[in-house]
């Protein structure tokens, strides 16, 4: 067979892009493939076995439509694009997620889709519940909270809360992160699949969870109601209230659902009950509603029947897988605990080692400081010793000076005493000299008076002698010569000699008195000079005594 023949036998294909909540995949499909062929290929690629919950959705003319499984892909009204894009989404929702979602991949896909619907505000959630759900989403993404690793700001790039909640409260991103982290820290030890399941268990209790809403009218002219289809039945809502239905039809109470053009009819199981009819905007909407109703009704009836062998096997495998994962998680938890304990022990040892090193460093520094202090103290001791020696020397010198000053003071006192004694003696001598001077002066006066009296007596005697001579010897006057044989003349001569002798004695006495007076004046002058010297010495001694007193 030629290469050309092989090429002719190869089937024609077209490209398809499958978009999941968190990934995109491309496949090459044969032209003859039906919707189920493409759907099975995607499920195999994902490893998904619980296929009845999912479908391939596309948008045409503004209406979200599900790819039909029993028709060829290219025969359906799909977008004309290359590659053709389909969204792989949950089409039907379980009543109880913990019992019905068996595979981890199924659970993960539901978690991602429900989380996106809450963030896009397709499902209403209270602010408190959104914070709790966000904490489980963070636990599923980041694992256990570690304050050393999950520092403030680690959630800055994650979308965790609906914009409505962020606008409703005047809180900063840091405040929201703090609230979420407070819950997140309490989920320690929860594995990723458990965190996602806890998220879904909270979300399934929300009023808008798993509900597909369609605008309807009770007549052809008005669109004033909403029809909701979910896992439990069909519900009728007012246009402004999607939380509390005004009327509900459970799947077990519905006998038949049919449509004719834009009219859709719901017949209750009770034949006496009123048949509910409503109108939709397009025929395609009625087909979509009917398709969702059939699928949800089938699942509702299947849940209330005995599980098929495939479901039983899947549940058994899920239980085994959960048990295995539980054991694995326990083992991992034990290993993690042991590792954390080992890390804590290591950190404690490192801390202790660091502490010991720090203590050793501090001890070395203290030792160095002690050595420096010892050297400094030794230097100070040496300086102190030298200062002590110097002080001792100064003290000795001071003692010697003190003794010298004491001796000087004693000498000064002795000299002062001697000088005072000398002064007293000088004063006594001066007094004596004054007295002697007075006495001598008096004596001199007496002597002068005696001398005067003697001279006066001498004069009188001479006069008397002359008078006598004149009377007795007149010839003596005429003839002055006398005879040596004359006795009168001899007596006259004797008297003259006596007068001359007496005159000589008076002169000598006068001379002696004058000499004594001069001696006395000389002695007085010398004594005054001596008194002046004594006064100068006493004044100098007083000054020295004052200076020695100040020095002491």
Q: Topology of this structure?
A:
Blueprint: H1 3-9, E1 13-19, E2 24-30, H2 35-46, E3 54-60, E4 63-66, E5 84-90, H3 97-100, H4 104-119, H5 127-142, H6 163-168, H7 173-184, H8 192-203, E6 212-216, E7 225-229, E8 233-238, E9 247-250, E10 254-260, E11 263-268, E12 276-279, H9 283-303, H10 309-472, H11 474-478, H12 487-551
Helix pairs in contact: 4-8, 5-7, 5-8, 10-12
Q: How would you describe this structure to a colleague?
A:
It is a single chain. The protein has 552 residues and is an alpha+beta fold. It folds into 4 domains: 78 residues, Phosphatidylinositol 3-kinase Catalytic Subunit, Chain A, domain 1 (Ubiquitin-like (UB roll)); 101 residues, Acyl-CoA Binding Protein (Up-down Bundle); 94 residues, Pleckstrin-homology domain (PH domain)/Phosphotyrosine-binding domain (PTB) (PH-domain like), CATH 2.30.29; 116 residues. It is 62% helix and 12% strand. It has 12 helices and 12 strands. The chain has a 5-stranded mixed β-sheet, sandwiched between helices. Strands 6-7-8-9 form a 4-stranded antiparallel β-sheet. A hairpin with an 8-residue loop joins β6 and β7. About 5% of the residues have low confidence. GO terms for molecular function: actin binding. This is Merlin. It comes from Lophotis ruficrista. It is a peripheral membrane protein. Keywords: Cell membrane, Cell projection, Coiled coil, Cytoplasm, Membrane, Nucleus, Phosphoprotein, Ubl conjugation.
Extended strand count: 12
Write down the domain tally. 4
Shape: rod-shaped
Order of helices and strands: HEEHEEEHHHHHHEEEEEEEHHHH
Structural class: alpha+beta
Distance between the termini: 143 Å
Name the helicity range.
55-70%
Q: How many separate helices?
A: 12
Major pleated sheet: 5 strands, mixed
Strand content: 5-15%
Q: From the alpha-carbon coordinates, what is the Rg to the nearest angstrom?
A: 76 Å
Low-pLDDT stretches are: 475-499
Give the strand line-up of the largest sheet: 2-1-5-3-4
